[in-house]
Write a structure and sequence with these properties.
There is one protein chain. By secondary structure, this protein is an alpha+beta fold. It has two domains: 161 residues, no CATH class; 199 residues, no CATH class. The strands form three sheets. It has a six-stranded mixed beta barrel. Strands 2-12-1-13 form a four-stranded antiparallel beta sheet. The radius of gyration is 32 Å and the shape is elongated.
Length: 406
């Protein structure tokens, strides 16, 4: 019998080879997804917080059983009277919270390209209570604050001063000092930048993976207590003992208040990262399950291929090939299948670029090389057992075959 090819696998069983390459492509996509989730979680975890979240507690927007409306100033006065409280503020949203206010920001009037940024409506104690630090410019002056009763036109039709985060300043004016320069929120009336703070922590999901924490603070005081999130700054060690004190003070002042337990911002931060952690765990488990299945599939396929072609392997040995040469040929075949699977997986990633997994459509070179190394190592590990089986095929087996004679 003549040797049709030294490669035993490719071309002999194209359907099985295609199935294995497809399985590797699926693994390539899963591994890239896991890497993307890990990178996203790492960015979220290490993103600058810019606030003293270990010292700040959140009192959630109140609900009054009798449906009454209470001015925000009344609640602030009660909270400031609590012993141990170092600062109190009322905001329209809170860092790591589930509710977020967003607006498109640009340096020219609409309809220019806009950066989606998170908007804080801040009172005169907001920066102090949060522990935010100004890196450029100044804070709001006493005469620059206005009451906000729900009219959103105040956000873009009034020439308000604005304090922005360092990330937003870099995006708006990358090569210039932003102080005194304009920015626009939908309307034609510009806001004037008077200060820049370190990147503030934003509500959950508002952090931009590429641009950072894009945030704006406006000197608008939330007028109605039911629309406000109240922040209290106090020593970290006193959180547990202050919880009942804060609740009792609110109930004494407002008997109809259905008060909830104050929540440390550090707890909100951990909760905000929980979905990303869960997503990473699920993808990691999927990659682990896929790895086990791939090891099993390649091992079974290799054993089956060797059982189907023992005479050809024996003939290679009889013609003078060493066991090392036979092993190298089989490893090369597996390597070709792995490369085909990775190319198919990369094409699948590009196809997914327009879908829900669009962030995976352009993986970094680091991710591609890492995932490729993982697949190569896994495939080479899978061939270890079939290679052992080839060592049990003697060179003289070919002389016993009725169809093959030396």
């Amino acid at each position: 019998m003549g040797m049709r090819s030294r490669l035993l696998l490719l071309g002999r069983h194209p359907i099985l080879v295609a199935a294995l390459a497809t399985q590797l492509a699926v693994g390539f996509v899963l591994a890239c997804a896991a890497c993307a989730a890990a990178i996203t979680l790492w960015k979220e975890t290490t993103a600058p917080r810019g606030i003293a979240d270990d010292e700040v507690m959140l009192v959630h927007p109140p609900y009054f059983a009798d449906g009454r409306r209470v001015p925000t100033t009344d609640v602030l006065r009660v909270l400031r009277a609590v012993d141990g409280v170092r600062g109190v503020s009322a905001l329209n949203q809170v860092p790591y919270g589930r509710n977020a206010w967003h607006a498109g920001i640009s340096i020219t009037p609409f309809p220019s390209p806009r950066l989606m940024s998170s908007v804080y409506l801040a009172d005169e104690h907001a920066l102090e209570t949060l522990g935010a630090r100004l890196v450029l410019g100044r804070g709001f002056g006493p005469d620059e604050f206005h009451a906000y009763g729900g009219d959103s036109s105040r956000l873009h039709d009034s020439p308000l001063p604005a304090i922005i985060t360092a990330s937003l300043a870099r995006q708006l004016y990358p090569d210039r000092d932003p102080l005194g320069l304009p920015m626009y929120v939908r309307g034609a009336t510009p806001l004037r930048i008077i200060g820049v703070v370190e990147d503030l922590a934003l509500p959950a999901g508002a952090h931009h993976p590429d641009h950072g924490n894009l945030g704006v603070l406006l000197p608008l005081k939330v007028a109605n207590a039911t629309d406000a999130h109240f922040l209290l700054r106090m020593p970290t060690a006193g959180h547990a003992q202050h919880d009942p004190v804060v609740k009792r003070a609110l109930r004494d002042a407002f008997p109809a208040w259905v008060a909830t337990t104050p929540t440390p911002l550090s707890s909100l931060r951990r909760e905000s990262l929980a979905p990303e952690r869960q997503h990473l765990w699920l993808l990691s488990l999927a990659v682990a399950a896929w790895s086990c299945l791939t090891l099993f599939a390649f091992n079974v396929a290799g054993q089956w291929w060797i059982q189907q072609h023992p005479q050809e392997l024996s003939l290679r040995r009889a013609l003078g090939a060493s066991q090392r040469q036979v092993d190298a040929e089989l490893r090369l075949e597996y390597l070709v299948v792995a490369c085909a699977g990775m190319l198919l997986g990369f094409a699948l990633l590009r196809l997914l670029a327009t879908g829900a997994w669009g962030s995976l459509g352009n993986p970094s070179l680091f991710v591609i090389v890492g995932v490729a190394a993982l697949l190569m190592a896994l495939v080479q590990l899978a061939i270890a057992w079939p290679l052992r089986a080839t060592r049990n095929i003697p060179p003289h087996l070919v002389s016993r075959s009725p169809s093959v004679r030396l």
